[in-house]
Amino acid sequence: MKKISIHLLYFLMVLLGATTFLTGCVEDDDYWPYSPPPGWDSNYFYDQDLNGTWELVQANSQPVGRYDTNYMEFYGGGRGRYYYYDYGRLYGESMAYFCQVSGNTTTSYQINVQYENGDTSTMVYWFTDGYNTLWLQWQVGNRTQTYLYERVSRVP
Questions:
Q1: CB 105: neighbour CB atoms within 10 A?
Q2: What is the band of 24 on the pLDDT scale with cuts at 50, 70, 90?
Q3: Residue 65 pLDDT > 80, yes or no?
């Protein structure tokens, strides 16, 4: 009888340890420090057409190389991940996003993306090719930057 009890106790300890280990890997959804940019108040939405994974294929009409590309994953509800290469290695970080109607003549929508590292960017955006290509455009000084993303099935 003691032998069964010892095995049962051992099994329960292993099960408890595994549960504790796996629980430690779960992202804490309560910690989400992002909020809409100043002045947006409650005048924002989460565009469901963004949901999915996007790969940068062109920057200012020039093709982007394999290790110069980046990826954006939009999960919905303003949450996502941003992936980029640094010296040939792929890194990722959390991001938040907020969409708003814009007064731009190119498109009716703008997006504010907030990255885990603290960077933010507000860009106008639009879709082509049956919502399979995403265009992002913004100003840097007096120059217009235009990035073209294509919908992909996953981040490599």
A1: 7
A2: very low
A3: yes
